[in-house]
Design goal:
Elements (H helix, E strand, L loop, with lengths): L11 E6 L5 E6 L22 H199 L1
Antiparallel strand pairs: 1-2
């Protein structure tokens, strides 16, 4: 006799692990829904069933359960098949990706190696060109330094010659200046002597003229005194004559 059907949901678990460490777990269960309990009705009580009817219903329920389990197992098998196919495709894609990545990495490494060699060769070429340029600049600077040194030495020699020549010219000019200064000094002394002579002559003339004027003034004073004496004498003579005339008349 089959056991009555359980109300618990049936669970079917399936676990799969891939190479990457991923784990999948599939749980299949019957859909369940909590239905509200219908309110109690005042329907008439069903009639009692016989043992054969109960046995028949139990057999039908068992068959339905087995059919549902078979259907579930078929669905699970189909899903497992799809999962295996997906896992196989994923593994193939992963292997293809790894192979493509490895090939790309190897190509990149080869390209990087070639580029590094080309870069190093370019650096070596640039370094060689730079060293050649530095050597050329050094030689050019040495040549310019030698030319500058030669120019300075030539200028120093020329300056020494010019200095000697200029020194002779300066000495000659100094002698000419001294001669000119001597002439000027003699001229000044002669001019001073002549000026002193003229001054002495003017002083002598002025002295003579002053003495002459003094003599003239003295002579004029003497003449004035003589005239005053004559006037006084005439006046006294006239007064004496008048007194005599007055006395004679009285």
């Amino acid at each position: 006799m089959a056991s009555p059907k359980s109300n618990e949901p049936t669970e079917i678990r399936c676990e799969e692990k891939s190479r990457g460490g991923m784990c999948y777990e599939v749980i299949l269960a019957e859909p369940s829904a909590d239905k509200p309990t219908p309110p109690a009705t005042s329907s008439p009580r069903p009639k009692s069933m016989t043992a054969e009817e109960i046995e028949q219903k139990l057999l039908q329920a068992e068959e339905r359960r087995k059919s549902m389990e078979a259907s579930r197992l078929a669905s699970v098998g189909e899903r497992m098949t799809r999962l295996e196919e997906a896992s196989r495709k994923r593994e193939e894609n992963t292997a293809a990706f790894i192979a493509a990545t490895q090939a790309a990495l190897e190509d990149k490494l080869d390209t990087t190696t070639n580029n590094r060699e080309a870069y190093l060769n370019g650096l070596r070429a640039k370094l060689s060109d730079h060293l050649n340029n530095v050597d050329g600049v050094r030689k050019q600077l040495e040549a310019q330094t030698n030319d500058l040194r030669q120019t300075i030495e030539d200028k120093l020699r020329s300056a020494e010659e010019n200095r000697t020549e200029n020194l002779g010219k300066m000495l000659e000019k100094l002698k000419e200046h001294e001669d000119y200064a001597q002439k000027v000094r003699l001229g000044h002394e002669e001019a001073i002597r002549q000026l002193e002579e003229r001054i002495q002559a003017k002083i002598a003339v002025a002295t003579n003229k002053r003495e002459s004027e003094i003599l003239k003034k003295l002579e004029t004073l003497r003449e004035h005194d003589r005239r005053a004496e004559m006037v006084r004498a005439n006046k006294e003579r006239i007064m004496a004559a008048e007194k005599q005339d007055a006395a004679s008349s009285g």
